[in-house]
Every structure is written in C-alpha cells, then in structure tokens.
C-alpha cells in the first residue's frame, strides 16, 4: 500500500499537469484551461493519484 496525499488531484490536469481551481467546472466535470483536456473529474483525479503512486514507490529493504 502506498499512501498518497490527494490534495489538488481533482483540479490538476492528468494530461499536462496544469493545476487551477477553475479546471474543475462542477462536482463531476473537469476541463483543463490550458490543454482543453476534458474528463469526468473523478477519473481525472484517479489518474493523478495513480501517477503519484507510481513515482513514489516504497523502497523495500
């Protein structure tokens, strides 16, 4: 198990990484103001969490 801080994952674009509160148009709608990527907000946040987990792998000794 990898613990991930979910802060800003719902307002960060999973394609270009742009983070802005206005990217989150509503509870379920995400639209990046920079690259115009659109997706369900929960799916976008899940992609960001998966990416953070992939780069923060625990070191097993």
UniProtKB/TrEMBL annotation:
InterPro entries: Cas12f1-like_TNB
Top-level lineage group: Bacteria
Pfam families xref list: Cas12f1-like_TNB
Keyword DNA-binding among record annotations: yes
Domain Cas12f1-like TNB: start-end pairs: 2-49
Alphabetized GO MF terms: DNA binding
Keyword annotations: DNA-binding
Name of the protein this chain belongs to: Cas12f1-like TNB domain-containing protein
Gene source species: Leptospirillum ferrooxidans (strain C2-3)
